[in-house]
Amino acid sequence: MYDVIMVNAIRLLTHVLPVQTNPVTKYLVQDQSLLSKFTMISLTRFIQCVNKSANVRLQNSALIKNSKNPNRIWSQIVMKNKKDGSIMNVKVQTVPKDRFEDFIDLKMNHFVKDEITYKVSGINDNPEAVKECRAVLKNMMSQRAVHIHGYFREDEAEHSELIGASSLILISKDDPLEEITVKTKEMKRFFEIVRAWNLLYKYDEVFKRYGIDCFYQDAGLVIHPKYRLLGIAKYEALVRRLVCIAHGVPATGAWCTMLGSQRASTLDDWDTLFEMSYDELASRLGVQFNDPPPSCKYMAVKVL
Description:
Blueprint: H1 2-16, H2 23-30, H3 40-53, E1 73-80, E2 87-94, H4 100-112, H5 116-121, H6 127-141, E3 146-153, E4 161-172, H7 185-200, H8 203-210, E5 214-223, H9 232-247, E6 251-256, H10 259-267, E7 271-277, H11 278-285, E8 295-302
Parallel strand pairs: 5-6
Antiparallel strand pairs: 1-2, 2-3, 3-4, 4-5, 6-8, 7-8
């Protein structure tokens, strides 16, 4: 499994910049024996150091809708199911326009229903709130400052299955966050909780911590339940680093509300910038969490 992870890491790197111009891929592709000397953490540190020394930094304007390749394929990954040992070919690609509704379906069916903030807001108990939530999500995810990449299962079918997806929102110092108006009480409650949550650790703290003026904020990683044993979350941390490098965005951060995301981010050497127990969080937000992990964390990593 270790060899599979490392080979996939190199495949990811070679999709970010051409081998001839990327010193990371130049050195590692020329000498495959170097793979055995890296852990996932040391590899990501190596990426940082080499890119910094080579000044590999693209112009910081690369919102995905302005890129020359809006359907960019980030990598072809070989993934192994932990349950039955089966091997699956997965393509990581910026979600094309014709698959946007599939992304929204996946988000509504397996993120809105499962993610802790949506659950405590009661959105899924009111069909009108679900309908409004879908409309709000479609609008938010269509904005220029949003990047979405999907994990597509590749097989004989002409229409590859979207088994997971990640969305990132570009947060900039000079761009105020847009206020969203909603009607249902559940959606109002959802945004009340989100606003209170974001006051616990403000984006300004990320700017100060890393000395930056923008970063990619996580807007949710969703994985279809059938494919949650493939280890997508572990690859996602590395893919986000590579998206930052390709887009010239110096850092990425996320509220890690569940143990899985916390472990994946720790494995990729992210910093824990804020942590609070769920008991205290419930008291501050005025909500009750069902069987939460010990704590909620805001985690981030400086990439460039």
